[in-house]
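for the writeup, i need someone to sanity check this before i put it in the appendix. the sequnce is what the collaborator sent (i think, or maybe the updated version? ugh). structure was predicted straight from it, no edits. if anything looks off just tell me and ill rerun, i have time this weekend
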Amino acid sequence: MSRRIREIKKCFKVFCEGDTEYRYIDGMRRQKKLSIALKPVNMKGGGYLNFLEQVKTDGSANCLAKFIMIDGDRAVKEEGEKRNLRELLEYCILQNQSERTPHFLIVDYPDFEYVACLHSPRYKGQDAAKYIKKEMGYKDIEQFKAASDVYQVLHTKGNSSECMLSRLNKDNCFVINDYTVNKKQYEIKVKTIYNWNKFGMKSSNIDEFFGVIDRFCP
């Protein structure tokens, strides 16, 4: 009798800092039955350097790509964090140039709450915290961040990721990952482009995460 060969399952890894992002991606993973390993990062005391350390030390075996999702507001408020962000960006660029495991740096500016508001077709650029409180039924932004059903909330009553993706201002993006996908070979190649002159403009390149994941959806 021939020995049964065990199929090795490849997955994506998502490093994220906040509970909201974690629960959002987890909801998406469960609903679409995606092969995503979530890696929460504790930012306290280390900021973006905590991301860098965790991404560096995390293994890459059977990993199709790593997505590092951060809010950009810290780097605008603190000069030291801007330097740390630069170091994280440069590390991702080096990994992509080496053509090992692709690293996608995803920057939401000012934060994920802004991206959450873009899911609503009624959002017109108002203050994100006030909009979430008034239009989404939360008593405050902290309750929204603690909500376990954030993915479901952002995909009901006319809200959708399709709406969010159609409204992203790509012209304002500080970082863009130009990528190609060869699904048959499980190969993703990335070239990271950035422009510090655009840093601090409302934007997000989270569409890259959706674009890559959709190519490998069951």
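The first helix runs from residue 19 to 32. The first strand starts at residue 11 and ends at 16.
thx in advance!!
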